[in-house]
């Protein structure tokens, strides 16, 4: 048992190092004074340039943030209500609907992007930030739906029946019983949707329009001429933001669970 335990710990640590090493290299070279791949000295010049001389980058970041937050919010609302209805009601096509919810998750992104482009062209919608928003809602929705549904499958609905017996209306049971218990799944779905939206490139590439460049598209166009240290600095800022967001969410969920 001790040998197996030591081997498992070694594999775990090796995996963590393998995944973290590229991030560590990125962080180190974001402080490199030179653009070249060799280390020439410590400098904060790329962080200064990031915050002072990159208006197009921050415009792309703002577009990504707007689309990510709005599409995640809409996906979370629709996905949560859909998961509650799916778990509560029984209907003939229930199993087929669950199978259908996996389709956007397993289909290649290029197929989803092309199909959305054909759809927007067919109905006469001009490509813009709105079409990017619609596309992100469409592929975020199944993830939110399945995460909330997984939470509800462990939920004892006799609690809802008890609330109804005590005089609670359907709305009161939804907002005071079901949604509070589903909070971990809802928060997980919301954060997953934001992450998927921020990092998506393929689908966004097909449905974006003039003036609707998102951060992945900007980074792709920038690195075609070489990796800029400004991109390294931006990546470090986003890593720190992710750590803060994850830590805050963890404390929030612990607070909810304590109640």
As a percent range, the share of strand residues is: under 5%
One letter per element, helices H and strands E, the order comes to HHHHHHHHHHHHH
Number of strands: 0
Global shape: globular
The CATH superfamily is MetI-like
Return the average pLDDT rounded to an integer: 83
CATH class type: Mainly Alpha
Any guess at the CATH architecture?
Orthogonal Bundle
User: What composes the largest sheet?
Assistant: none
- DSSP helical segment count: 13
**Percent helix among the residues?**
over 70%
List keywords for this structure.
79% helix, mainly alpha, MetI-like fold
If you had to describe this structure to a student in words, what would you say it looks like?
The chain has 259 residues and is mainly alpha-helical. It has one domain (52-258): Orthogonal Bundle (MetI-like fold). The chain is 79% helix and 0% strand. The protein contains 13 helices and no strands. It has helices spanning 2-29, 45-52, 55-88, 94-101, 103-106, 109-123, 129-153, 158-165, 170-181, 183-199, 202-207, 215-223, 229-258. Helix 3 packs antiparallel against helix 10 (183-199) and helix 8 (158-165) runs antiparallel to helix 9 (170-181). It is globular. It starts with a helix and ends with a helix. The mean pLDDT is 83.
Compact overview of the structure:
This protein has 13 helices and no strands. It has helices spanning 2-29, 45-52, 55-88, 94-101, 103-106, 109-123, 129-153, 158-165, 170-181, 183-199, 202-207, 215-223, 229-258. 24% of the residues are buried.
């Amino acid at each position: 048992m001790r040998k197996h335990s030591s081997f498992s710990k070694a594999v775990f640590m090796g995996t963590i190092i393998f995944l973290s090493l590229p991030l560590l290299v990125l962080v180190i070279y974001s402080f490199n004074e030179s653009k070249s791949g060799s280390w020439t000295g410590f400098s904060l010049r790329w962080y200064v340039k990031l915050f002072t001389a990159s208006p197009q980058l921050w415009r792309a970041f703002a577009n990504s943030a707007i689309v990510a937050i709005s599409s995640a919010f809409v996906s979370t609302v629709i996905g949560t209500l859909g998961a509650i209805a799916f778990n509560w009601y029984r209907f003939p096509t229930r199993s087929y609907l669950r199978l259908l919810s996996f389709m956007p998750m397993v289909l290649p992104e290029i197929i989803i992007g092309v199909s959305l482009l054909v759809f927007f062209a067919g109905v006469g919608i001009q490509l813009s930030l709105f079409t990017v928003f619609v596309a992100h809602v469409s592929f975020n929705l199944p993830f939110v739906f399945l995460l909330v549904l997984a939470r509800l499958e462990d939920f004892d609905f006799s609690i809802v029946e008890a609330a109804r017996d005590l005089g609670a209306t359907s709305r009161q049971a939804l907002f005071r019983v079901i949604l509070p218990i589903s909070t971990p799944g809802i928060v997980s779905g919301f954060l997953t949707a934001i992450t998927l939206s921020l990092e998506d490139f393929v689908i966004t590439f097909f449905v974006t329009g003039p003036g609707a460049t998102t951060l992945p598209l900007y980074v792709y166009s920038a690195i075609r001429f070489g990796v800029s240290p400004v991109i390294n600095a931006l990546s470090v800022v986003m890593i720190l933001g992710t750590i803060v967001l994850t830590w805050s969410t963890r404390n929030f969920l612990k607070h909810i669970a304590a109640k």
